[in-house]
Design goal:
Mean pLDDT of chain A: 92
Distance between the termini of chain A: 11 Å
Shape of chain A: elongated
Oligomer: homodimer
Number of domains of chain A: 2
Helix content of chain A: 25-40%
Number of strands of chain A: 20
CATH class of the largest domain in chain A: Alpha Beta
């Protein structure tokens, strides 16, 4: 375990009382939506809006200054114009507040004048022993505590609680940018680091490494402040839980863009790549993979080996899927003699081997094919020669199998000893969406394409060889 | 131009009269849905169902045999048990029918007995000069003629007519497997070659190369029967229209699976890869890319160079997008002095350079930010230093900008001289779906992730260097 105490960041990620500096005019940006969201997500701590020009917002008192707040304050949230931040930080320091989230932008990421303002408030905070996330952060969310802090109105009231946490340095992983409320699977925390004037990815990684609520950590990074510390933490944490990283700035062109929008340096990509390998970080190459691979790692058991069983409706899909699976280190399992015999009995002319092409019985026995699919899946689940399953589902035009697939998933939920990655196709998009939502709600991840489903299983296998199962 | 006449395949792809051999019992597989779909898609030719056990199906007469049909027949569609196919082929040959689509399976893809049956009916057809698509095909569709031939019920009545055509050898590109009716953009033809006992990908490629209705050709292949002919055709056609190929069997594991499900050989993948490069085929690596890149190539103008302009709401997205764009040969454009000045006037502290981060004005001016987005986009469209545009759209939680984006797309429709690839994000999935549908209906392709949007523009640029603009 990393020595850092679990409580170091509690004022930032799990505060019991918050002072919010901003505008409380009804609108989609600033203090107003910040308060509304904390209320609707059920934040149980105290909220103290601060602005001398308001008396009340959303049913709670607005204080003219931080000095008037009657109780202790864990966290200051600052969402005012950049030029006002040093003065506010000074007030917070005097009041004994130990942590701040600075949402305001216009600092080091903007120009030299902004960089100077940033140095100024950081100095004040450092002298007072305050910790800061930001500036230029879009917010922090800790679902369990109802601590949903965002600068923008997100339009929803709740996110399903789960075990995936995100660290990021872009406003794109924030309340207003991702349809979190539409996710059928659960999320734990997400933190936008912004300009990282103080708290950085290494410290937060250490924190989440020790966080019992977090089972999978996904990071989007543009640069790393302390590479040694980050990799040391990752190496230790990845023995216990997977760490996924998407790092941009692979190309010279993107590295240049990073300097201009966050003021940080991307570093040499090949060095970073080999460091990731050494630290057992799963480096992903696409934005959606940060979510896709996190969901399968969080909600499905790890495979015990790399032998893939495939249930498919057409040979074509199975073939495409096998290409990706093989590229990611999986082999096509040979069914046990027992499984093979069982399947041959079920549908003699076409079955008995892996991949199992259950499209054939659908053609001949449209009214009664679901039991065939179910028995084929159950055979793969029982077969000791199979470590993981790619599950290609077809839904007929009328959606008549949607309930049957759902019922089967309900029966299987909690019983799995090997992972299942699902891809669904159908002549009806709405059936695909409906069943995807239901299956993911039950913990069975569904992927946008069959290649990603196959790669997800490859990632699961890779992580199974990294994880220290004795821990 | 390839010498083959446009009319060679008219009996297969544009028949005026069809005899359908199958079961006409109401259900989701066989002759019944085949007739229903031809009717609902508005097939204007004659339909002659053939089966001695029926008198009538869906309001039309069923004939006891092909001999009773009163008029000439262009095409026989055979969807009966494998063992009956040689005899039916014999009857068709005698009746003078010149083309057949054999939907039935259980031939070379199944076992040696099936292969023998296949040889038998192919012999009969060859002697009579008949051309065959199949066996083991899921069907053929030619939207313009309402010729929607599928063995399975698809549940919808219409597909939007467009200029993208598909050639495939899997039932996965067929009426019942893809939500074609939900596509906002148009499709022209799709043909599942099945076992390719006669007509193969080369002939069809030549046909579509000369087809004035088809602007983009997408192929999914597992093997190629006549590599020389295929590449020769492709080399000639790609000067005029783009040819996208997804070929599975890249890995040994998948090549093995291909033998077992279609009986064809995958061949050496590296050889195929370099052949594609020589023939200017765009080889794609994922299933969805067959659709994604086809839609931008079909519905957006080609870029004149590789200089990318980016409109984004967050620096993070722009950075990730730039990585992919640079990997696909695009450079980040430098705005003209005029554009830069205009943008600086619009929003002094943050604008004036590419990427244009229009997230900043959204934060400060939530009520009036749309005109800023619009002016920024229009500036990129006018700037001669910009060849293509990556357009990152954010929709607020209430969807209040969906109509404004739609209106702007309506205004721009038909005026573009450079391509725009769009990615949309929002805290609401339903807004993303709604606006994606509207924009694609207007010819502005939207991608599932920003990396694919960037890659799509890279593919557009690559094709612009291939196309012979003097033709």
């Amino acid at each position: 375990m990393i020595k850092q105490s679990r409580h170091d960041f509690d004022s930032l990620l799990n505060p019991k009382s918050i002072a919010i500096f901003g505008s409380f005019k009804e609108g989609i940006f600033g203090g107003y939506p910040a308060v509304r969201q904390l209320q609707s997500f059920g934040f149980s701590g105290k909220i103290y809006p601060i602005n001398p020009r308001y008396n009340e917002v959303l049913g709670i008192k607005v204080y003219p200054s931080v000095n008037e707040i009657p109780t202790a304050v864990d966290l200051a949230v600052i969402m005012t114009a950049a030029t006002t931040v040093p003065e506010i930080m000074e007030q917070c320091a005097k009041r004994g507040i130990k942590a701040a989230v600075v949402v305001s932008d216009g600092f080091a990421e903007r120009n030299e004048e902004g960089a100077e303002l940033q140095r100024k408030f950081v100095d004040i905070a450092k002298k007072a022993g305050m910790r800061i996330i930001g500036p230029n952060t879009a917010g922090i969310v800790n679902i369990k505590e109802g601590f949903a802090l965002g600068a923008y109105e997100c339009g929803y009231e709740k996110i399903k609680k789960g075990t995936i946490s995100f660290i990021t340095q872009t406003g794109i992983i924030a309340l207003q940018a991702v349809p979190w409320a539409d996710f059928p699977y659960g999320i734990n925390k997400f933190i936008d680091l912004g300009n990282k004037c103080d708290v950085d990815e290494s410290e937060l990684l250490e924190y989440l490494g020790n966080d019992p609520e977090t089972k999978v950590i996904s990071l989007y990074l543009e640069g790393i402040k302390d590479g040694q510390r980050f990799l040391k933490a990752a190496k230790e944490i990845t023995r216990r839980k997977p760490v996924l990283v998407l790092k941009s700035g692979r190309t010279k062109e993107a590295a240049k863009a990073i300097v201009s929008h966050t003021g940080s340096l991307a570093g040499d990509d090949q060095v970073f790549d080999s460091a990731c390998q050494q630290a057992n970080i799963i480096r992903v190459s696409k934005w959606n993979e940060l979510f896709d691979f996190a969901k399968i790692l969080a909600y499905q058991p790890l495979p015990k080996g790399n032998r893939l069983g495939i249930l498919s409706c057409t040979g074509g899909v199975a073939t495409m899927l096998i290409d990706t699976a093989a590229e990611w280190g999986l082999t096509i399992a040979k069914l046990s003699a027992e499984s093979s015999d069982q399947l041959k009995k079920l549908f003699p002319p076409a079955w008995g081997a892996n991949p199992i092409d259950w499209g054939i019985p659908t053609a001949y026995m449209p009214d009664k094919w679901f039991p065939f699919y179910q028995q084929a899946l159950e055979t793969l689940l029982k077969d000791d020669n199979i470590d993981c399953i790619a599950n290609v589902i077809w839904i007929d035009p009328f959606g008549s199998s949607v309930d049957a697939y759902t019922k089967l998933a309900e029966e299987l939920q909690g019983t799995l000893t090997k992972p299942i990655a699902t891809w669904i196709y159908s002549p009806s998009s709405s059936h695909v969406m409906e069943l995807s939502y239901r299956l993911e709600s039950l913990g069975f991840p569904v992927f946008h394409d069959h290649e990603t489903a196959a790669k997800a299983l490859g990632i699961m296998f890779r992580y199974s060889t990294i994880k220290d199962n004795s821990l």
